[in-house]
Design brief:
heterodimer; A: mainly alpha; ABC transporter involved in vitamin B12 uptake, BtuC; 2 strands; 3% strand; B: mainly alpha; 14 helices
Chain lengths: 291, 311
């Protein structure tokens, strides 16, 4: 095993991990602010991917440009899902709220998954642009252009989200609500609007991740469960509260997976991630989820 | 109340007798296969219900135990062990697995238990898929002696056994303890319910029957990928059936299973699994608006005339 081979593997892990981090950021936002566990988050990634895929296939819109359409679109989907479904568990205590939201998410995941098969067949799809095959070589290491762009966009999105949460009034309202919703309510923050905004942002982040998956890798209607699990693993690893932390948690997972692929073969890559997940859950039962 | 209870028991008895006579009445394989499927789902959803409906613990890794049962049964049966013994061992193996993971898994509460068990089942599924990426097909001699009615009767016995065990559990002291911890874990603990013990017993009952259902699956199917019974589909099916039928009720899984198989059959014209789309939507509706499922609908419809008469 040459050093270059190892380094190349780690680069691929880093590029995948950035997308894990982006997907996890949305899940973390919703769980941290609403105390709602949306297990249909991976299906939102899938939907975002299809949106960009069809924009490219039907009208030839460049996938990176298509984010201008898919991000608002997925934001709107998030608004609808929250208003129609998830807002209904808001009045429950924390424990039944999480449990019921998990069940709603489960039904939603099932419905989206089968709707996607019905509408778009179960085939694998990928966005093949003219530059999809372009690879940048640097010191003998390969950097596929679209995945590198994916890393940059994921990083940019997380950075923008971080600035939004830290610097704007709406972001501050989100953070205050996550900290203590009752106190936030007493301070005159419109909790319901804050919840709605956080959920829609989460959906938009999932959609962005979906576009990057469709252009750098491939999508099909069944990828939802896998992405939900990846996002959950990252959230458990990274804890709540810091978006850059979540992003680096994703990169850590990507690197851990690619390292384990080197050591014990790529077939057990996902098993390693799940074992880490269970270990962390066991060691801190209330989770690194907690604060 | 006693009259109603004996009426209900009598009604169930009539259904069981009618089901027992089904193979004598028709030898149509499609009818028997569908009826088999309903009975398998009654066992599977009932077993899931034992933990989730009574003790309130949502196990998203139920397929692991179904898969363990199927795997053990298939191995023993082909090795020449009598299928009844094989079935018993498959139930025992799944039950033991439940016991082993139970105590660490119940360190997790609520939703964390759900995602933890999902992770565990995924580990098992991927490992089986990697280690045994082949189709398990019965040897020719086994296929020649294949008797569908035999499988059907076994499924009937298993469904009755599961339902009877759950009926007994519901009325026992143990069952009451489980329901108490479902409503409020801390309050149950404070009133003297040993929460961990009750959870583990519910899990063991649940996984034991799931293992039996898995064993039956392995006895029924001529060929399938080893990975198939470990697929999360089995968890999702059990969960949908139990919730849509009525989670935490005795007849819920039965009503749910009949409805599920019927809907699957009606919507089977297209290649897409449309019934899952319908059930996903129904499921959300049940969670949001109708926690008692179809059973509650029936109760509400039946009660209406009496309340009107009283007014």
């Amino acid at each position: 095993m040459g050093l270059q081979f190892v380094a190349q593997n780690l680069i691929f892990g880093l590029l995948t991990g950035a997308l894990y981090g982006l997907a996890a950021a949305g899940l973390s936002l919703v769980f941290g602010v609403l105390r709602v566990l949306n297990v249909a988050h991976g299906e939102l990634v899938m939907l975002g991917g299809y949106a960009s895929f069809w924009l490219f296939a039907l009208i030839g819109l460049d996938p990176f440009l298509s984010l201008i359409v898919t991000v608002p679109l997925m934001f709107a989907v998030g608004l609808g899902l929250h208003q129609g479904l998830f807002s209904r568990v808001q009045r429950l205590e924390e424990e039944p709220r999480i449990k019921n939201s998990l069940l709603i998410g489960f039904g939603l995941a099932l419905a989206f998954h089968n709707l996607a098969i019905r509408l778009w067949t179960a085939d694998d799809r990928a966005i093949n642009t003219a530059y999809s095959g372009t690879v940048i070589t640097l010191g003998g290491l390969l950097f596929p252009l679209v995945r590198l762009a994916g890393l940059a966009i994921a990083f940019g999105a997380i950075f923008a989200l971080h600035l939004f949460l830290q610097r704007t009034a709406a972001g501050q309202a989100i953070r205050a609500t996550a900290e203590d919703w009752e106190a936030a309510l007493l301070m005159g923050i419109d909790i319901r609007r804050t919840y709605l905004l956080a959920f829609a942002l989460s959906s938009a982040l999932a959609g962005t991740a979906g576009t990057l998956v469709a252009v750098g890798y491939s999508i099909n209607p069944a990828i939802g469960l896998e992405w939900t699990l990846k996002a959950l693993i990252v959230v458990v690893l990274a804890g709540l509260g810091s978006m850059p932390g979540t992003f680096f948690g994703g990169i850590f997972l990507g690197l851990a997976e690619s390292t384990s692929a080197l050591l014990i073969g790529s077939a057990y890559r996902e098993v390693v991630a799940l074992v880490i997940f269970l270990l962390v859950l066991m060691i801190r039962p209330q989770g690194l989820f907690g604060r | 109340m006693n009259v109603r209870r004996s009426l209900r028991a009598g009604g169930l008895g009539v259904v069981v007798v009618a089901l027992a006579l089904l193979p004598a009445w028709t030898s149509r394989a499609d009818v028997l296969n569908q009826a088999f499927l309903v009975l398998l789902y009654v066992t599977l959803a009932g077993s899931w219900n034992a933990l989730a409906g009574y003790a309130g613990q949502i196990n998203l890794g139920h397929s692991a135990f179904f898969g363990i049962g199927a795997f053990v049964m298939r191995y023993l049966w082909i090795a020449g062990v009598h299928p009844y013994l094989g079935l018993a061992v498959s139930g025992g193996a799944a039950l033991t697995a439940g016991l082993i993971i139970g105590i660490p898994a119940f360190r997790l509460r609520g939703a964390y238990f759900a995602i933890g068990t999902l992770g565990l089942a995924e580990i098992l599924r991927i490992t089986v898929g990697n280690a045994l990426p082949i189709v398990s097909t019965l040897p020719a001699g086994f296929i020649a002696g294949y008797d569908l009615a035999h499988r059907y009767y076994l499924a009937l016995v298993l469904a009755v056994l599961t339902t009877a065990a759950l009926a007994w559990l519901m009325r026992s002291r143990l069952g009451l303890g489980m329901m108490a911890l479902r409503e409020d874990e801390d309050a149950a603990e404070a009133t003297g319910v040993d929460v961990l013990k009750h959870k583990v017993i519910a899990l063991v009952v649940s996984t034991g029957f799931a293992g039996l259902a898995g064993g039956l699956f392995a006895f029924y199917h001529v060929s399938y990928y080893h990975q198939l019974p470990f697929s999360p589909i089995w968890t999702f099916d059990a969960l949908l059936i139990a919730f849509v039928g009525g989670v935490g009720t005795l007849v819920g899984p039965i009503v749910g299973a009949v409805f599920y198989v019927l809907l699957k059959e009606v919507l089977a014209q297209s290649l897409v699994e449309l019934h899952l789309l319908v059930f996903g939507a129904l499921f959300i509706l049940v969670v949001l608006a109708l926690p008692g499922g179809l059973v509650e609908v029936a109760v509400r419809l039946r009660r209406r005339p009496t309340t009107q008469a009283l007014l």
